[in-house]
Each structure stands twice: as structure tokens, then as C-alpha cells.
Design brief:
Elements lengths: L1 E5 L1 H9 L6 E3 L2 H5 L6 E4 L3 H13 L3 E4 L7 H14 L3 E3 L7 H11 L1 H4 L5 E7 L4 H10 L7 H18 L7 E8 H9 L3 H7 L2 E9 L5 E7 L5 E7 L4 E5 L11 E15 L2 E12 L5 H14 L5 H30 L5 E2 L6 E6 L14 H6 L5 H7 L18 E3 L24 E6 L14
Helix pairs in contact: 3-4, 4-12, 8-12, 9-10
Length: about 450
């Protein structure tokens, strides 16, 4: 349930929609001080996003944030750091990740019976032919609001699919890209030279390659200059090829599909026919909107009271890392394009994952396995008994019919478009008496939470 909004434009939207029960604040600060608010949707422009995300995290609010996460990887890191220090969830608004078909595609890539081996190459393209007025608006906002242009918009989705294909623990190594800048099309009219174009104009088209090491490569094309496309293609060293022509916005609900093709090697000749490939089509019969699925996943993570604090923190970390890595990819591609296609090292910030240790939840590094006998010898007892001892979050969860209602506040009206019920919750309270232990993330083999759907 939408609980509160801030900002004049959003308040006008509430009046138009006759949302009388929604509290309307004149400033974001007033909204963040409301103790009834458990989570916020952050839809402000990219220039302001980092500061308000950090402020919201410091206020103990869980974050559902529009893409791109920030203007730079450094700003994105500050957001992630604030969220992990405060123990709140950070999730970027990338709805297709939560669609049932996306889960099925990832499962097919991980299953050697379907795909034959780990994927080594992913090609993702997303474009639409924008009007000149749209592109002019992109130009006008570059210095003030959204400086990443098409890369932070359409390119974000392509970069996210690279992580889905190669795994949530994949880390970009380097990037190369070429771009078309808005100023290249209007430099004569606006009196801009080449330097002005790079400094003052946003990219409206970009073609790039991201190296993940281990022979894994992501090829990206995003554009405001071409016909509408939303296609992915994932291949490996075997004869398998996974394709999807509508990965972002399914054209059929239910009935969203993807194909796994097997190519004959060498091609088979049958009389006068040459058999090149066979294709198997997978169909998703889910009728659930992917935006609703995203909001439900956000709420399930926040309101989860069955996991230990350590495991819940790991889940939060997996989502935050996914958003941070996507930001690193986007900024590396843009930097390479500004350097005329020279290879740019992807600077992935290294930071420790803060895990908490108390009497009810022993700190165990995920890569270390402990047998039940060892747990009993240490006085931990069985896992079943330990569950009884765990403290649950201090949340009053409403009992309602589907869809469930929970509290959300928004700084932008898009969070509650249509009839979607926004699911959010209240995070655990922190205590200064708790002992904090830090373990470097390189030594923690975190499971890929943002590829798992409950």
C-alpha cells in the first residue's frame, strides 16, 4: 500500500488519482523522518539519486531505486556501503529479472543437459527509434540530471543480462566501446567542437564489449537511433545457442518464450535437405506481471523472518552487488567511448561484507562447511532447535487476501502505477553492543540470490 509521497508533482498525481489516504509531504526529508515508512522508491534524477539514497539508508529505509543507480561507480559504491552498514535492502528497478521466464532461461544455461556447458558469450541489444524532441531532451538534461544517456538507460538492461548469463559472482575485467553522441548530429547547428561533444553531449548509441575473464564476453548494443529491438543470444563452446527476441518486455503474457537451438556439427544431409539445427521452444505460462513480481520479491526479502541475520545479510549483499557491478559495466563502457574505443579497466570496488555475530546466530564463513556433529559439539544443537531460538523482526504484517498489502512511500508516482500492490517491510534494529566481524568478499562464495526466486 502506498503510504506517503513527497514532491509537488507527485502530490498532484495523488490528487488526480483521488488517493486521499496517502500522506503528502512537501520535502523528502519529512518523508524519511516518518517512522511509519519502511521503504522508499527512489525515482529522482540521476544527479540527485546518490545523495538521497544514502540519506534514506541512514534513516533505516529499504531502497527500491531506478536505474542507473548513480552517475559513477564511486557514487554507487557509497550507496551500497550505506545500505550494508545500516542493514537495509538495495534493489535496482530491473523488472525483467524477476519474470518467471528469466528464471527458466538462467536454469537452462546452468543445466548441462540443456546447454552443454557454461556460457562464454552473451550478445544483448536494446534500441528504439526516438524522436528528435526526445533526443533533444536527453541533450538538455545531460549536465543537470542524467549524464549517462542511452548507456545508463537501455544499456543498463543489456549489462544486467550479462550478469544473468555468466552468474551473479561474475566480475568485469575491461571494456571497449564506440558511441554516437548527440552533438555529432547537431554540432554544426550548436557550434560545438569535438571536445565539447564529449564533455557536454550524452551518447545516443553505443556498441561495446565487456571482458569478464575466463573466456566470457558480453557484447552490447543500445541505441535511440534504430528500430525497436530487445534481443539476447547466449552461446558456449558447445553446439547450443539460447535466444530470446523479447527479453525485456514479453510480447505474450502468458506464453512468453525462448529457444534453445542445437546446431549440427557437421551439418547433416537428408536427401535434398541440409539439417543445420533443431530448436526447442520453452514457454512460460505465468500470468503475473513482472513489475508485480519484482515488488513481491523486494517485500519477501525485507519481511523474511525465517533466515538468520547472517543469511539475510548475504541475500541483501547479493542484490546490492548486482546493482554495483552493473553500474561498473555502464561507466566502463562510457569511459571507453570517451577515449575513442580504447580498452578501459573495469574498476570494481573491493569492500568487506559486514556480518554480525551474536549468541543466536554464529558467524560462519559461507565457504566453510560445518557438520551437524560439529555443531552439536560446539553447543549449537540441531538446525531445527536453532530455528526456535532465532529472533524475528519486529514487524506487524497485515493478513490480507492476494495481493498482499504493505507500506511503501515514494518520491515518484511510478511506484504504484496500475493496480500493483507494493510490498515492503521494516528492517532489523541495530545494536551497538553487537560484535561486528569483517570478512573480505573475495573469500565469501555468496550464492547468487538475484538469480533465485522464491
Amino acid at each position: 500500500m502506498l503510504l506517503a509521497v513527497a514532491g509537488a508533482e507527485v502530490a498532484e498525481w495523488c490528487d488526480e488519482e483521488e488517493l486521499e489516504a496517502v500522506t503528502q509531504y512537501t520535502t523528502y526529508e519529512e518523508l524519511l523522518c516518518d517512522p511509519r515508512v519502511d521503504a522508499v522508491y527512489v525515482g529522482v534524477c540521476t544527479r540527485l539519486r546518490s545523495a538521497w539514497c544514502v540519506r534514506a539508508a541512514e534513516s533505516g529505509k529499504h531502497l527500491l531505486v531506478e536505474k542507473p543507480l548513480a552517475r559513477s561507480a564511486r557514487e554507487a559504491f557509497e550507496i551500497v556501503k550505506a545500505c550494508e552498514e545500516q542493514g537495509v535492502l538495495l534493489m535496482d528497478v530491473t523488472a525483467f529479472v524477476h519474470h518467471e521466464r528469466s528464471r527458466n532461461m538462467v536454469s537452462a544455461l546452468r543445466d548441462e543437459r540443456h546447454f552443454g556447458g557454461p556460457p562464454t558469450r552473451c550478445e544483448a541489444s536494446h534500441s528504439f527509434a526516438a524522436t528528435r524532441d526526445f533526443q533533444q531532451g536527453t541533450m538538455d538534461s545531460v549536465n543537470n540530471d542524467d549524464p549517462l544517456g542511452v548507456v545508463g538507460d537501455l544499456g543498463w538492461y543489456c549489462a544486467k543480462w550479462g550478469l544473468l548469463a555468466f552468474g551473479a559472482d561474475a566480475t568485469p575485467v575491461s571494456a571497449q566501446a564506440k558511441a554516437v553522441w548527440w552533438g555529432m548530429l547537431s554540432a554544426d547547428d550548436d557550434g560545438l567542437d569535438a571536445v565539447d561533444v564529449l564533455e557536454e553531449c550524452p551518447p545516443i548509441e553505443l556498441t561495446g564489449t565487456v571482458d569478464f575473464g575466463a573466456h566470457q564476453t558480453l557484447q552490447i548494443h543500445c541505441s535511440y537511433n534504430h528500430a525497436f529491438r530487445q534481443r539476447i543470444e547466449v552461446s558456449g563452446y558447445d553446439t547450443k545457442l539460447l535466444t530470446c527476441d523479447d527479453f525485456l518486455y514479453p510480447t505474450k503474457i502468458p506464453g512468453a518464450t525462448f529457444d534453445v537451438c542445437t546446431f549440427a556439427s557437421p551439418p547433416l544431409r537428408d536427401l535434398d535437405s541440409l539439417v543445420l539445427k533443431t530448436a526447442q521452444t520453452y514457454v512460460s505460462h505465468s500470468t503475473k506481471d513482472q513489475t508485480t513480481s519484482m515488488i513481491d520479491a523486494f517485500a519477501d526479502l525485507v519481511l523474511n523472518t525465517t533466515d538468520s541475520r547472517r543469511k539475510k545479510k548475504q541475500r541483501f549483499h547479493a542484490w546490492a552487488r548486482g546493482a554495483l557491478v552493473t553500474q561498473v559495466i555502464v561507466n566502463a563502457l562510457l569511459e571507453s567511448a570517451k577515449r575513442d574505443g580504447r580498452s578501459v579497466k573495469a574498476q570494481m570496488p573491493s569492500y568487506p561484507l559486514v556480518l554480525e555475530n551474536d549468541d543466536d546466530d554464529e558467524l560462519i564463513v559461507p565457504s566453510q562447511k560445518t557438520s551437524r556433529s560439529q555443531q552439536k559439539a560446539a553447543g549449537g544443537g540441531s538446525a531445527k532447535n536453532n530455528k526456535k531460538k532465532k529472533k524475528t523482526l519486529n514487524i506487524k504484517r497485515k493478513t490480507t487476501t492476494t495481493p498482499r498489502e504493505h507500506h511503501l512511500s515514494s518520491s515518484d508516482g511510478n511506484a504504484s502505477a496500475g493496480n500493483d500492490r507494493v510490498v515492503v517491510g521494516q528492517g532489523p534494529q541495530r545494536s551497538s553492543a553487537r560484535i561486528k566481524k569483517r570478512a573480505r568478499s573475495d573469500n565469501n562464495k555468496l550464492h547468487s540470490d538475484f538469480l533465485e526466486y522464491s
